[in-house]
Amino acid sequence: MKVNTRVIMKNILVYPFLILGVFSIAQEDKQIDESALTESKNLTWEANKELSENNFITAEVDYRKAISKSGKNVAAPYNLGNAYYNKETYSEAFGRFKQAGEIAESKPDKHRAYHNMGNVFMKRKDYQKAVEAYKEALRNVPTDEETRYNLALAKELLKKEQEQNDQNEENKDQQDQNQDNKDEGDNKEENKDQQKKDKEDKGDQGNEKKEDNKEGDGEQKEEQKKQPNQGDQPEEQKQPRPSQLSKQQIQNLLEAMQNEEKKVQEKIDAEKVKGAKVKNEKDW
Q1: In this model, does residue 120 exceed pLDDT 90?
Q2: What domains does the chain contain, in order, with CATH numbers?
Q3: How far is CA 73 from the centre of its chain?
Q4: What is the DSSP string of the chain?
């Protein structure tokens, strides 16, 4: 259901035009204040007239003069606040309503000032402060139906704002959760890719190691082919077996070898003698 957001303003205060009188010296102190207040009210009346004729600038000047003349004239700041409010100059309007509420002595004047302060808060969409201002206005005049209406409206808008904030917070939490889930999924995918890469790198390293081992084994086998079999030593490296003969046997063997060599030598010498040519030629 659409909520009607129109707030009700309290109108400007209208004072009748007053004629300044002549005062005796005995009443001078008291009557000076009254004279200043009367002059302030007359300026307020002039400003109200100018404002009704849409002469805002002149009216603003007269309202300011009226405020400066007397600090007891509630109507001057209050009416100037209304003029600013209608011009949508809400900060200036609030300042003047606040000023009027502070100097007001009667409950009806305080009520009007706080009522319109609540309206400024409504324009700013500061519904919590609007509720407080309307409540303060009702403390001074509890029976005012316009203030009650504005208070009910402010409470309704405040409730809707709080519900919207709660919904926004819930949506934000859901978005954060979705983002966390997405980040977690991205991390899992990255880990999966990293594991796959690590596995591939490990496989490549294993293949390189196998290839290196294969090459090493081939080189080792080739080297083994070039080397002689273990246990086969070159002839010059073979060690002679230690002799198993006795000293006497060795001596006999040497003598036999010497005798054999002697026989061989004699045989060679005999062959030489036998084969020598005999000289048969005669001398002449």
Answers
A1: yes
A2: 1-20+30-201 (1.25.40.10)
A3: 56
A4: -PPP-PPPPPPPP-----------GGGHHHHHHHHHHHHHHHHHHHHHHHHHTT-HHHHHHHHHHHHHH-TT-SHHHHHHHHHHHHTT-HHHHHHHHHHHHHH--SHHHHHHHHHHHHHHHHHTT-HHHHHHHHHHHHHH-TT-HHHHHHHHHHHHHHHHHHHHHHHHHHHHHHHHHHHHHHHHHHHHHHHHHHHHHHHHHHHHHHHHHHHHHHHHHHHHHHHHHHSPPTT---GGGPPPPPP-S-HHHHHHHHHHHHHHHHHHHHHHHHHHHHTSPP--PPP-
Determine the length of the chain: 284
| Both structure tokens of 203 | 């496989």
pLDDT digits (tens, 9 = 90+) for 146-200: 999 999 999 999 999 999 999 888 888 888 888 877 777 777 777 777 887 877 7
